[in-house]
Amino acid sequence: MKFAATDKKYLANRKRISEKYGERELWSVIDHWPLYCGVGNLARSMAIADLLRSTLGVPGHVAEFGSWRGANLLFLAKLLRIYDPHGSKQVHCFEGFQGLTTFTEPDVASLGNRGLYKGSYEELIDIISLYEMEDEIVIHKGLVQDTLGPVLASEQELSFSFVYCDVDLYEPTRLILEKLDERLMKGGVFVLDEWNDPNYPGETTGVREFLEKKGSRYDVEHVRNTPRPSLVLRKNTA
Predict the structure, then answer these.
(1) Which domain holds residue 11?
(2) 3-state SS track over the chain
Protein backbone atom coordinates (compact mmCIF):
# COMPACT_ATOMS: atom_id res chain seq x y z
CA MET A 1 0.00 0.00 0.00
CA LYS A 2 1.34 3.46 -0.91
CA PHE A 3 3.17 5.25 1.93
CA ALA A 4 3.25 2.09 4.09
CA ALA A 5 7.05 2.12 4.44
CA THR A 6 7.12 5.86 5.13
CA ASP A 7 4.36 5.57 7.72
CA LYS A 8 6.13 2.70 9.48
CA LYS A 9 9.33 4.75 9.76
CA TYR A 10 7.45 7.82 10.98
CA LEU A 11 5.57 5.88 13.68
CA ALA A 12 8.79 4.31 14.92
CA ASN A 13 10.55 7.68 15.10
CA ARG A 14 7.53 9.23 16.78
CA LYS A 15 7.61 6.57 19.47
CA ARG A 16 11.34 7.11 19.99
CA ILE A 17 10.90 10.87 20.49
CA SER A 18 7.97 10.32 22.85
CA GLU A 19 10.04 7.96 24.99
CA LYS A 20 12.99 10.35 24.95
CA TYR A 21 11.08 13.38 26.25
CA GLY A 22 8.52 11.59 28.40
CA GLU A 23 4.89 12.36 29.15
CA ARG A 24 3.52 15.84 28.50
CA GLU A 25 0.47 17.50 29.98
CA LEU A 26 -2.43 16.90 27.58
CA TRP A 27 -3.44 20.47 26.85
CA SER A 28 0.13 21.69 26.43
CA VAL A 29 0.41 19.24 23.53
CA ILE A 30 -2.98 20.14 22.08
CA ASP A 31 -2.33 23.87 22.17
CA HIS A 32 0.90 23.31 20.22
CA TRP A 33 -0.69 20.82 17.84
CA PRO A 34 1.14 21.97 14.63
CA LEU A 35 4.40 20.94 16.32
CA TYR A 36 3.22 17.37 16.88
CA CYS A 37 0.70 16.72 14.14
CA GLY A 38 1.91 14.52 11.28
CA VAL A 39 1.76 15.88 7.74
CA GLY A 40 -0.59 13.06 6.75
CA ASN A 41 -3.09 13.93 9.47
CA LEU A 42 -2.82 17.61 8.63
CA ALA A 43 -3.44 16.90 4.94
CA ARG A 44 -6.50 14.82 5.80
CA SER A 45 -7.94 17.58 7.96
CA MET A 46 -7.33 20.20 5.29
CA ALA A 47 -9.04 18.04 2.67
CA ILE A 48 -12.07 17.54 4.92
CA ALA A 49 -12.25 21.26 5.64
CA ASP A 50 -12.16 22.04 1.91
CA LEU A 51 -14.92 19.51 1.22
CA LEU A 52 -17.12 20.87 3.98
CA ARG A 53 -16.55 24.41 2.79
CA SER A 54 -17.63 23.38 -0.72
CA THR A 55 -21.07 22.45 0.64
CA LEU A 56 -21.75 25.47 2.85
CA GLY A 57 -24.23 26.83 0.30
CA VAL A 58 -26.10 23.52 0.16
CA PRO A 59 -29.05 23.30 2.58
CA GLY A 60 -29.13 20.48 5.09
CA HIS A 61 -27.21 19.15 8.06
CA VAL A 62 -23.83 17.42 8.36
CA ALA A 63 -23.53 13.77 9.40
CA GLU A 64 -20.69 11.49 10.37
CA PHE A 65 -21.06 7.73 10.48
CA GLY A 66 -18.32 6.06 12.51
CA SER A 67 -16.94 8.72 14.83
CA TRP A 68 -14.69 6.53 17.02
CA ARG A 69 -13.32 8.92 19.67
CA GLY A 70 -14.91 11.97 18.06
CA ALA A 71 -11.94 13.81 16.57
CA ASN A 72 -13.45 14.36 13.13
CA LEU A 73 -16.88 14.93 14.65
CA LEU A 74 -15.63 17.83 16.76
CA PHE A 75 -13.54 19.07 13.85
CA LEU A 76 -16.63 19.32 11.65
CA ALA A 77 -18.63 21.05 14.39
CA LYS A 78 -15.83 23.54 15.06
CA LEU A 79 -15.51 24.26 11.33
CA LEU A 80 -19.23 25.05 11.16
CA ARG A 81 -18.86 27.35 14.15
CA ILE A 82 -16.16 29.23 12.20
CA TYR A 83 -17.61 29.06 8.67
CA ASP A 84 -21.34 29.37 9.42
CA PRO A 85 -21.74 30.58 13.02
CA HIS A 86 -25.31 31.83 12.64
CA GLY A 87 -26.56 29.06 10.36
CA SER A 88 -28.88 26.19 11.24
CA LYS A 89 -26.58 23.28 10.33
CA GLN A 90 -25.96 20.67 13.02
CA VAL A 91 -23.61 17.69 13.02
CA HIS A 92 -25.32 14.32 13.48
CA CYS A 93 -23.11 11.58 14.91
CA PHE A 94 -24.00 7.92 14.27
CA GLU A 95 -21.74 5.74 16.42
CA GLY A 96 -22.19 2.49 18.33
CA PHE A 97 -19.10 2.86 20.56
CA GLN A 98 -18.49 -0.89 20.18
CA GLY A 99 -15.79 -0.90 17.52
CA LEU A 100 -16.07 -2.90 14.31
CA THR A 101 -18.54 -5.74 14.81
CA THR A 102 -20.88 -6.28 11.84
CA PHE A 103 -18.79 -8.31 9.40
CA THR A 104 -20.37 -9.94 6.36
CA GLU A 105 -18.94 -11.87 3.41
CA PRO A 106 -17.48 -8.82 1.60
CA ASP A 107 -15.57 -7.99 4.81
CA VAL A 108 -13.61 -11.25 5.12
CA ALA A 109 -10.27 -9.45 4.67
CA SER A 110 -11.17 -7.19 7.61
CA LEU A 111 -11.98 -9.85 10.20
CA GLY A 112 -8.69 -9.32 12.02
CA ASN A 113 -9.86 -5.82 12.93
CA ARG A 114 -12.87 -6.96 14.95
CA GLY A 115 -13.36 -4.62 17.92
CA LEU A 116 -11.05 -1.95 16.49
CA TYR A 117 -12.09 1.71 16.85
CA LYS A 118 -14.06 1.29 20.06
CA GLY A 119 -14.82 4.76 21.40
CA SER A 120 -15.95 6.19 24.73
CA TYR A 121 -19.40 7.76 24.83
CA GLU A 122 -18.75 9.33 28.24
CA GLU A 123 -15.50 10.98 27.17
CA LEU A 124 -17.10 12.32 24.00
CA ILE A 125 -19.97 13.85 25.96
CA ASP A 126 -17.47 15.53 28.30
CA ILE A 127 -15.53 17.03 25.37
CA ILE A 128 -18.72 18.27 23.70
CA SER A 129 -19.68 19.89 27.00
CA LEU A 130 -16.22 21.46 27.35
CA TYR A 131 -16.73 23.34 24.09
CA GLU A 132 -20.45 24.00 24.81
CA MET A 133 -21.55 22.27 21.62
CA GLU A 134 -24.60 20.45 22.94
CA ASP A 135 -26.85 22.39 20.53
CA GLU A 136 -24.50 21.83 17.60
CA ILE A 137 -23.94 18.06 17.83
CA VAL A 138 -26.63 15.37 17.92
CA ILE A 139 -25.54 11.84 18.87
CA HIS A 140 -27.47 8.78 17.71
CA LYS A 141 -25.95 6.04 19.82
CA GLY A 142 -26.04 2.50 18.45
CA LEU A 143 -25.25 0.51 15.33
CA VAL A 144 -26.15 2.26 12.08
CA GLN A 145 -28.33 -0.72 11.20
CA ASP A 146 -30.40 -0.06 14.33
CA THR A 147 -30.49 3.74 14.43
CA LEU A 148 -30.58 5.22 10.93
CA GLY A 149 -33.97 3.88 9.84
CA PRO A 150 -35.83 4.98 12.99
CA VAL A 151 -34.16 8.41 12.95
CA LEU A 152 -35.20 9.04 9.35
CA ALA A 153 -38.71 7.75 10.04
CA SER A 154 -39.21 9.98 13.07
CA GLU A 155 -37.55 13.07 11.57
CA GLN A 156 -39.09 13.42 8.14
CA GLU A 157 -37.63 16.89 7.76
CA LEU A 158 -34.04 15.69 8.18
CA SER A 159 -31.90 16.42 5.11
CA PHE A 160 -28.15 16.55 4.63
CA SER A 161 -25.52 18.50 2.72
CA PHE A 162 -22.41 16.60 3.87
CA VAL A 163 -22.19 12.94 4.92
CA TYR A 164 -18.90 11.47 6.11
CA CYS A 165 -18.89 7.68 5.89
CA ASP A 166 -16.19 6.06 8.04
CA VAL A 167 -17.81 2.75 8.95
CA ASP A 168 -15.30 0.60 7.00
CA LEU A 169 -17.63 -2.36 6.47
CA TYR A 170 -20.04 -3.41 3.74
CA GLU A 171 -23.45 -3.53 5.42
CA PRO A 172 -23.42 -0.11 7.13
CA THR A 173 -21.87 1.52 4.04
CA ARG A 174 -24.58 0.09 1.79
CA LEU A 175 -27.29 1.15 4.22
CA ILE A 176 -26.03 4.73 4.57
CA LEU A 177 -25.83 5.30 0.82
CA GLU A 178 -29.22 3.75 0.07
CA LYS A 179 -31.12 5.39 2.94
CA LEU A 180 -29.60 8.86 2.53
CA ASP A 181 -29.71 9.02 -1.26
CA GLU A 182 -33.08 10.79 -1.10
CA ARG A 183 -32.10 12.89 1.93
CA LEU A 184 -28.86 14.26 0.43
CA MET A 185 -29.53 17.60 -1.25
CA LYS A 186 -28.27 18.42 -4.75
CA GLY A 187 -24.69 19.62 -4.52
CA GLY A 188 -24.22 17.67 -1.30
CA VAL A 189 -21.57 15.00 -0.86
CA PHE A 190 -20.98 11.52 0.44
CA VAL A 191 -17.35 11.37 1.59
CA LEU A 192 -15.87 7.85 1.84
CA ASP A 193 -12.90 7.24 4.12
CA GLU A 194 -11.78 3.70 3.17
CA TRP A 195 -12.89 3.37 -0.44
CA ASN A 196 -10.38 1.33 -2.46
CA ASP A 197 -8.58 0.26 0.71
CA PRO A 198 -7.51 -3.41 0.57
CA ASN A 199 -7.90 -3.68 4.34
CA TYR A 200 -11.60 -2.78 4.11
CA PRO A 201 -12.94 -4.10 0.79
CA GLY A 202 -16.51 -4.14 2.07
CA GLU A 203 -16.75 -0.35 1.85
CA THR A 204 -15.64 -0.42 -1.79
CA THR A 205 -18.15 -3.17 -2.59
CA GLY A 206 -20.95 -1.19 -1.00
CA VAL A 207 -20.05 1.93 -2.99
CA ARG A 208 -19.75 -0.02 -6.24
CA GLU A 209 -23.19 -1.58 -5.81
CA PHE A 210 -24.71 1.81 -5.02
CA LEU A 211 -23.16 3.44 -8.09
CA GLU A 212 -24.46 0.63 -10.29
CA LYS A 213 -27.98 1.66 -9.24
CA LYS A 214 -27.70 5.42 -8.70
CA GLY A 215 -24.42 6.41 -10.36
CA SER A 216 -26.08 8.75 -12.87
CA ARG A 217 -27.10 11.00 -9.99
CA TYR A 218 -23.54 11.53 -8.75
CA ASP A 219 -20.24 12.97 -9.91
CA VAL A 220 -17.32 10.89 -8.65
CA GLU A 221 -14.36 12.93 -7.38
CA HIS A 222 -10.82 12.06 -6.33
CA VAL A 223 -9.57 13.68 -3.12
CA ARG A 224 -6.17 15.24 -3.76
CA ASN A 225 -3.09 15.21 -1.55
CA THR A 226 -4.33 12.72 1.07
CA PRO A 227 -4.89 8.95 1.10
CA ARG A 228 -8.01 9.47 3.24
CA PRO A 229 -10.73 10.38 2.61
CA SER A 230 -10.40 8.55 -0.68
CA LEU A 231 -13.60 9.24 -2.64
CA VAL A 232 -16.33 11.85 -2.94
CA LEU A 233 -19.76 11.30 -4.47
CA ARG A 234 -21.26 14.71 -5.22
CA LYS A 235 -24.95 14.74 -6.05
CA ASN A 236 -25.21 16.42 -9.40
CA THR A 237 -27.46 19.40 -9.96
CA ALA A 238 -28.47 18.61 -13.55
Answers:
(1) 1-36
(2) CCCHHHHHHHHHHHHHHHHHHCCCCHHHHHCCHHHHCCHHHHHHHHHHHHHHHCCCCCCCEEEEECCCCCHHHHHHHHHHHHHCCCCCCCEEEEECCCCCCCCCHHHHHHHHHCCCCCCCHHHHHHHHHHCCCCCCEEEEECCHHHHHHHHHHHCCCCCEEEEEECCCCHHHHHHHHHHHCCCEEEEEEEEECCCCCCCCHHHHHHHHHHHHHHHHHEEEECCCCCCCCCEEEEECCC
